[in-house]
Amino acid sequence: MRFYYRTINVRGRDLINTAIGNTPLRKCNFLSASYNSQIYIKDESHNPGKSSKDRAAWFMMEDAIRNEKIKPGGTFVEASSGNTGISIAILARKMGYRAKIFVSKTCSQEKLRILESYGAEVELCDNSRGMHIFNSTQYLAQAYAANTENAYFTNQYYNSANIKAHYKTTGPELWQQSEQAVTHMLIGVGTGGSISGIGRFLKEQNRQIKIWGVEPVRSVYQGFVETGMVPEFQELHDAIEGIGRTFIPGAFDPQVVDRIFQVDAEESKDIAKQYYAQTNQLIGYSSAAVLACLEKYKEEMNLKEEDQLILFFPDHGDRYIQKLYKEKKSQSSKIYNSL
């Protein structure tokens, strides 16, 4: 299957020609044997910016340029846990634009270094709790764009192009690569764009496909999917970089999601180390949360031998060395001991 080639042509001038998508879908024999099912991994680290966020960044930026929401040489602005910011910085640099990225102070050091290496101006913020919270990444990004000449806030949390990117590219790829045999998807939920776009496309092909999401404990998606209400918690959700929210973004479509599972940060850290020990593969934080979810809820999932479960791995573990692979392993977790 071909790459998704994207070329922006503005006033007769091609600004960029890049290849995003067509990332591999590979069977994981280790996991398939462990869970007695057909388990595949969609590895998004093969995108040019090494994450699935290349897809959303491209669709949002292409829309802005085509519709003249930003002029040549302007600044793309985003609130990001890192990966979307990296994708925007890479593409902006190629096209002659600037990038200003607002990240929370919990952003990994690896991501900060990458952002700076691509020339992005980075601003650290107290939190990432939504547009109406002062000092959040979203609030400050919006305020900066509104008060800066020729600056455009891509706003991944409320930009429909975020969903469209996965509906138009990732979903069709998965359907074709799986030879129309996928029965279950398991995806970490951050902005909601990935699970919404993929889920919408796959449900249109086969309503029986189960679309499952993963988030940290005390994140709000699970309660919202189950009750239609946004739950309130006394404590913030576990810090699993890239997933979990205190608000429901406009990029999340609950109609295509069958269930949201919750895992904690320590489970995710421990399973990342265990998976590396077994496979010699470094996985990202939200990918580790997906694996922790599979282990924690394997009885409830009730997967059959013929089922084909696809795990969505949005980025690579080399962006989380300090957070996942350098810290002392928790002594309390028993996860994967049975494998």
From TrEMBL:
Gene Ontology BP term (one): cysteine biosynthetic process
Keyword set includes Methyltransferase: no
Lineage, top ranks: Bacteria, Pseudomonadati, Bacteroidota, Sphingobacteriia, Sphingobacteriales
Origin species: Sphingobacterium humi
InterPro entries documented for this protein: Cys_Synth/Cystath_Beta-Synth (IPR050214), TrpB-like_PALP (IPR001926), TrpB-like_PALP_sf (IPR036052)
Tryptophan synthase beta chain-like PALP domain segment(s): 17-314
GO molecular function, one term: transferase activity
Keywords assigned by UniProt, alphabetized: Amino-acid biosynthesis, Cysteine biosynthesis, Pyridoxal phosphate, Transferase
Family stated for the protein in its record: Belongs to the cysteine synthase/cystathionine beta-synthase family.
Cofactor: pyridoxal 5'-phosphate
PANTHER family per UniProt: CYSTATHIONINE BETA-SYNTHASE (PTHR10314)
Signal peptide residue numbers: none
Annotated protein name in UniProt: Cysteine synthase
